[in-house]
């Protein structure tokens, strides 16, 4: 497959296909490559982790597709490809002459995947979209943050990698369709659509709000009037059962000594017993979930008082035995060095020709029939000769391409 993408949304998709066994050839600008090779470097003159962690298991071909020869080489590759993926700005690839219609004519079985910021008919589709902008445009930012605070951007890549995973699903569906029909097709994936798909529960809440004028599971209820749009809910679970982020004993010195707890209707007796409030089981103000809504922060305050002498791991160990849904706030450091995640292949160590070994996220799906082997990302143009020889070019022609700046 041909990977004509850069930065994160496209490369996350094509990397997953490479992990699944696809031969992914990454097309890069000669002498420069993907911009993330040089971004946020931690080792001078070596590819940054931003690049290596999104481009493992691929081959790299430097190619200037603005040259006549470069266009011809890309067209040759397209003729023999199964999938072609790009995430250029709207209209950029078409101006090069690589319209969907032209690619489909070259290879009717080709599946063409494209990532853009907005749907094709959007009034915003000429905007250059980045991760944060996608989160804002998809409804995530307006519904994230403290109740009385500003909209917040999630650290999770809801706009980029999430879009890449949505495109991956579309490409796999298109492959199945081609198996049945023999025909390729274009798969258009917008970042706005991908974010909205993950914000569907908030879109659910918008419709409920328009019908009833209130959202009883939000922390504003019943004390603060609702406006006409879904508010920011702080750390409320949003699932219809109360949940909140609570401080543990070391929170003043450890900014991540917190845990999250969800209070299901069943098991309320266990919660009351463990925090030393057995009278709440029969107290009309606390006995039912509906009754607790107006007193929910009294409940959370009582749990937090119980947590005052326990760190997040100690607390979770106690509550899990009572089947009370909860979890510790795990840091990136804890995840990176978690032995179980290493054992499961969720965090893997990879060797790289330039920078040595580094850690990266492993393949999220775990298969019973095979285990994806993650290899280092390619050096810029590492496979120029190998790929061009495979297309039928000899050493003299390849040297000429180099001299002309085609590769």
Automatic annotation (TrEMBL):
GN (gene name): frc
Protein's name according to its UniProt entry: Formyl-CoA:oxalate CoA-transferase
Positions with a binding annotation for CoA: 63-66, 87-89, 95, 128-131
EC number assigned by the record: 2.8.3.16
Keyword Transferase: yes
Listed pathway(s): Metabolic intermediate degradation; oxalate degradation; CO(2) and formate from oxalate: step 1/2
SUBUNIT field: Homodimer.
Any Pfam family: CoA_transf_3
Molecular-function GO terms, alphabetical: formyl-CoA transferase activity
Catalytic reactions on record: formyl-CoA + oxalate = oxalyl-CoA + formate
Catalytic site positions: 160
SUPFAM superfamilies registered for this protein in UniProt: CoA-transferase family III (CaiB/BaiF)
Annotated signal sequence range: none
Similarity comment: family membership: Belongs to the CoA-transferase III family. Frc subfamily.
Record keywords: Transferase
Summary of the function given for this chain in its UniProt record: Involved in the catabolism of oxalate and in the adapatation to low pH via the induction of the oxalate-dependent acid tolerance response (ATR). Catalyzes the transfer of the CoA moiety from formyl-CoA to oxalate.
Keyword Transferase: yes
